[in-house]
Automatic annotation (TrEMBL):
<dbReference type="Pfam" id="PF00293">
    <property type="entry name" value="NUDIX"/>
</dbReference>
<dbReference type="GO" id="GO:0046872">
    <property type="term" value="F:metal ion binding"/>
</dbReference>
<dbReference type="InterPro" id="IPR000086">
    <property type="entry name" value="NUDIX_hydrolase_dom"/>
</dbReference>
<dbReference type="InterPro" id="IPR020476">
    <property type="entry name" value="Nudix_hydrolase"/>
</dbReference>
<protein>
    <submittedName>
        <fullName>8-oxo-dGDP phosphatase NUDT18 isoform X1</fullName>
    </submittedName>
</protein>
<dbReference type="GO" id="GO:0009117">
    <property type="term" value="P:nucleotide metabolic process"/>
</dbReference>
<dbReference type="InterPro" id="IPR015797">
    <property type="entry name" value="NUDIX_hydrolase-like_dom_sf"/>
</dbReference>
<dbReference type="GO" id="GO:0044715">
    <property type="term" value="F:8-oxo-dGDP phosphatase activity"/>
</dbReference>
<dbReference type="GO" id="GO:0044716">
    <property type="term" value="F:8-oxo-GDP phosphatase activity"/>
</dbReference>
<dbReference type="InterPro" id="IPR020084">
    <property type="entry name" value="NUDIX_hydrolase_CS"/>
</dbReference>
<dbReference type="InterPro" id="IPR042970">
    <property type="entry name" value="NUDT18_NUDIX"/>
</dbReference>
Length: 408
C-alpha cells in the first residue's frame, strides 16, 4: 500500500506543440498562468480521435450545419441547435446518461496540454491508482486492518492498496480487502476521489462484506497482521495516518443521508487521464451546458497533463485550460462541484480513466445577466437545456452539490 500523500509517479509525456492559427497570437489566447502550464488554445483540427480507435459514444451526434465563423458563434449556434430535434435529442440523451452515472465512450479530446506526442497511461509506469474501502456495520463499527509493512508495522488503517495492471477498479478493491481483511465484499458506492495531480489518484469506496472469514493474528502475513471491527468513536491506536478519520465520517454521513446517487465505475476504455465536463451556467430556472463542436456536438473532454505545473495544480488545471480556450475567465467564477461518474476498463492495457465532472460557471459580479458568457471560439457553444426534467436534475445536483467530492 502506498503511503498516504505519497508523491505522484511522473513520466507521461504530453502531446506535440501545434502552431496557432494565422493571425492569432498564443499570448492573446492564454493567460500568463496557463501559458506557464504549457497549454494551448484549441485549433479547429485539434479534436483528434483516440489513438486506440475507440468508437463513437451515445449522445454524440453530427452537427446540423457547417461551423459558424468565430464572430457571433454563440448567438447563431445557441439558437440553431434547439431547432434541430435530432441534435438536441442526442445531447439530452448524453446528458441523461452522464447524470445517471453511466458512461460514454471517449472518442477524442477537445483540449490537450502542450508538449510531446501523447502517450497512453500505464499503471506502475506513469500513473498510480489506489483503492480504499470503508466498512461500517449495524453496530457503528469500522473494519480496520493492522499493518505488516516494516515502516508502519503494528499501526491500524482501512483496507487499501495499489491497483495492479489488468484490474478494474472494483476488482482491485475486492482483492485488497480479501488479502488484508480476509473478507469478500461488494462496493456500495464511490464515496470520494483524492488526487495529487493526474499521476496519483485514490478511489474511496463505501463497501459491505458478502462472505469470507475475518483475518486473525494466526493468519498474519506480508499483507497484514490481522483485521478487526472497532467502534467508530473509539478507534485503536496508533493509526497509520489520520486521513482515514475524514473518510470514515464521510461514510457515516452517507449512510445517514446520501448526498449523491449510488455511483460505481463504468467499464469503458480510455487511454489517458481525462475529464468530461458538464459545464453549466444558470439563470433563474434556465440551465445552459457548454458543448464541443469538434466532429459532432458533444460534452467536451479535456486531457490531463503531466507537467510539473499540472501535477502541482491538480486535475482542475485541465478544466481551467479548456474553459480558458473558449471563455474570458477573468470576470468569471469557475467551481468544480465533483464527479457525476467514473470510467475505466483496465483490460487490454487500457489504464486511462475518464471522470465525468460537474462544473459551475458564473459571473463574478452577478447582475441581470440572463445569458451565459460569450464563447470566443468556434469549437464550443452554449446549449440551452429545454427538457424540464433535465433542468431540474441539473439544478438539484448543482444546488445540493449532489456529486462525489474530489479532494487534494
Amino acid at each position: 500500500m502506498p503511503r498516504p500523500g505519497a508523491p505522484p509517479l511522473n513520466g507521461l509525456a504530453p502531446p506535440p506543440r501545434r502552431p496557432p492559427r494565422a493571425g492569432q497570437s498564443r499570448q492573446a489566447a492564454l493567460t500568463c498562468s496557463l501559458s506557464a502550464a504549457g497549454v494551448r488554445r484549441a485549433h479547429p483540427c485539434s479534436h483528434r480521435p483516440e489513438a486506440s480507435g475507440e468508437g463513437r459514444g451515445r449522445g454524440t451526434l453530427r452537427r446540423s450545419a457547417p461551423r459558424t465563423p468565430r464572430s457571433g458563434v454563440w448567438g447563431v449556434l445557441a439558437h440553431r441547435l434547439p431547432g434541430d430535434p435530432m441534435a438536441s435529442e442526442g445531447l439530452a440523451k448524453a446528458l441523461t446518461a452522464v447524470l445517471g452515472g453511466q458512461g460514454l465512450l471517449v472518442q477524442s479530446y477537445d483540449s490537450e496540454p502542450l508538449g510531446n506526442p501523447r502517450v497512453p497511461v500505464r499503471l506502475r509506469k506513469n500513473v498510480c491508482y489506489v483503492v480504499l474501502a470503508v466498512f461500517l456495520n449495524e453496530q457503528d463499527e469500522v473494519l480496520l486492518i493492522q499493518e505488516a509493512k516494516r515502516e508502519c508495522r503494528g499501526s491500524w488503517y482501512l483496507p487499501a492498496g495499489r491497483m495492479e495492471p489488468g484490474e478494474t477498479i472494483i476488482e482491485a478493491m475486492q482483492r485488497e480487502v480479501k488479502e488484508e481483511a480476509g473478507l469478500h465484499c461488494e462496493p456500495v458506492t464511490l464515496l470520494s476521489v483524492e488526487e495529487r495531480g493526474p499521476a496519483w489518484i485514490r478511489f474511496v469506496f463505501l463497501a459491505r462484506p458478502t462472505g469470507g472469514t475475518l483475518k486473525t493474528s494466526k493468519e498474519a502475513d506480508a499483507e497484514s497482521l490481522q483485521a478487526g471491527w472497532f467502534p467508530r468513536v473509539s478507534l485503536p491506536t496508533p493509526l497509520r495516518a489520520h486521513d482515514v478519520l475524514h473518510v470514515i465520517d464521510l461514510a457515516a454521513q452517507y449512510l445517514q443521508q446520501a448526498r449523491h446517487p449510488l455511483i460505481l465505475p463504468q467499464e469503458l476504455p480510455c487511454s489517458l487521464v481525462c475529464q468530461r465536463l458538464v459545464a453549466t451556467f444558470t439563470s433563474v430556472q434556465t440551465v445552459w451546458v457548454l458543448v464541443g463542436t469538434g466532429g459532432m456536438p458533444h460534452l467536451p473532454i479535456t486531457a490531463c497533463g503531466f507537467t510539473s505545473v499540472e501535477q502541482r495544480g491538480g486535475i482542475k488545471v485541465a478544466v481551467l485550460r479548456l474553459l480558458q480556450e473558449c471563455l474570458t475567465l477573468h470576470n468569471l467564477a469557475v467551481e468544480t462541484k465533483g464527479l457525476l461518474g467514473l470510467q475505466h476498463l483496465g483490460r487490454d492495457h487500457m489504464d486511462g480513466i475518464c471522470m465525468n465532472v460537474l462544473v459551475a460557471v458564473a459571473f463574478r459580479n452577478p447582475g441581470i445577466e440572463e445569458e451565459p458568457p460569450k464563447v470566443r471560439s468556434e469549437n464550443y457553444f452554449w446549449w440551452k437545456v429545454m427538457e424540464e426534467d433535465l433542468q431540474s436534475q441539473l439544478l438539484q445536483r448543482l444546488q445540493e452539490s449532489s456529486v462525489v467530492p474530489v479532494s487534494r
